[in-house]
Amino acid sequence: MTRRLLLPLALLSLVACNWLAVPLPGGAWHFADGAESTSDAADRTSSATLTATATETSTATGTATDPYASTMTAVTVEVWVDDLPIRFQRVPAGRFTMGASPGDTPVVSNEYPRHEVVISRRFLLAASEVTQEQYHQVVGLAGYNPGSATLPVVDRSWSDAVTYCNRLSALVGFDAAYDAAGNLDLDSPGYRLPTEAEWEYAARAGTTGPHHGPLLEVAHYDARSQRKLQPTRQLAPNALGLYDMLGNAWEWTHDRYGLYAEGVATDPVGHPIAATRVRRGGSYRSGATEVRASTRQSAEPTVTADSGFRPARWLDNPQGEPYPAAKPPSTATSTSTSTSTDTTTDRATETAVDLTVDTPAPEEISTATETFNGVPMTFAVVPAGSFLMGSTFAANEQPVHKVVLSRPFWIGVTEVTQRQYTAVGMANNAPNKGDTLPGVAVSWVQAVDYCDQLSDRAGLDFAYDANRNLLLDKSGYRLPTEAEWEYAARAGFTGELPDDVEKIAWSAPHAALKPHDVASLAANGWGLFDTLGNADEWVSDWYDEAWYQRSPMTDPTGPSTGVRRVRRGGHFGTSAANLRLGFRDNYTPTFGSSSAGFRVARTAP
After folding, report:
1. Which of 80-84, 92-96, 548-552 has the lowest mean pLDDT?
2. Nearest C-alpha neighbor of 4 from the set 476, 411, 428, 320
3. What is the DSSP letter of 381?
4. Which secondary-structure segment (H or E) carries 370?
5. What stretch(es) of the chain map to CATH 3.90.1580.10?
6. How far is residue 299 from each of residues 114, 257, 278, 316, measured CA to CA in Å?
7. pTM above 0.85, yes or no
8. Cβ–Cβ under 8 Å, residues 114 and 98
């Protein structure tokens, strides 16, 4: 066992459409292609099930689900133009009830009759509205400002959207899906606008209510957005991994506008000759009653106000046979300036992204208790596994990426308490004293020294060297890595903010700006308390804003050097709305604020 001298820190300080108004029994969502193999085609290679948290309700704000909703999977395909990825989600074939949701208010006549629609072909749909950066990269955007890169491109006509789709097709080696007159080739694998039916089918993603989740969590509408355009992918996606289907920008669909008619419709493509086109989803200026899955707007194709779009493409031909994967042309072009000048791209390819994860179930989590100077400390024993780390809310949390943790580990079920902290001779500098309150006013350096004190008393090899560099293969106590912390804090949850956050987190205002006894609120799915709120928690990693862009997939431990260390989870003064599982904070490692605490981990023996 490696040892070094340790002193207690206390000593150191559609009109013509033939559609039927018959709801499916029980609101059921039926997949025409059944349970797909994930190895039958290039576009079928990756799936990561997202858990739906909605319940059956008949109110206008409900997010009712059907019996098949739990099988929904988010399957991601990326299209690269130069070094810019454009993310698409795969949508399975199936059927649904289109039109006004049960109990919808207001009642809008053009959303009736409710009718059954069959979507017979799988398709890809962009995960978000086309951003200004993506639009600029593909066709050029006059006056483009990199500071607005992640905002949806708006004030686009229907023809602008079609031009983008055709250009993207050319870049990845597909023939254009639209001819010069805007007619769609129904047998083309090229990029296009989604049909109105496809749009609503994908927006609902197995739900039958007007929204796929609580409106404040899924849509940028007037009251939430402050009537300002917002960056894409900030809010919760639906079960297919699609963001901003409601609000932010009105979205063009392919269809000419017409009223619904009775009869079962298979793959409808809109009225054949109407002059106006259909926009869907509402915008950042729309009121809450307008931002609904069934809202339809007839608009002249030249109308640009708040108009954005997201491209789609079919994965199967009309006979149900998969199209071949996209192949980039030998010479591809994209516009990367504010003019229409073409420049040669280095890369324009379509690539499947493996986001399959293996996250332990709650019953796989066991506990272990160790005693230090008569004071017990209980740990959750977390198996190896994988999860999706990060969020789309802030730049330093992007991209969402797969992380594999190859080693099981222990992590404290609570933040280190003041009694546990002082049991090994550490000085208690917390402003509010109490044995079961979290130990706060602790710097990163002090937290590491505490871990070393535990290792020394347990006779374990130190997990930090003399310069406090992490030694992940050693058996001693340590701070969790940032990846381990988020893995344990999420406990299989894929969203950003649990619905019952005030039941599990001491935060503003109900925490009254002070810490509370650990484990006094509910635990997360793996039995960990206070992963959100109460005390900010130090982790081992150095902080780097762009780390996620180059972080290794397996057992990441953060950058090798840095100036500041990462803290996670928020604290008693953080508002509940900001207690996000992906949120990353950073502080000088020698600074221990009145909200700074930690929990202990170790690599499993």
Report:
1. 80-84
2. 476
3. E
4. strand 366-372
5. 75-91+124-258+273-351, 362-603
6. 22, 8, 6, 30
7. no
8. yes
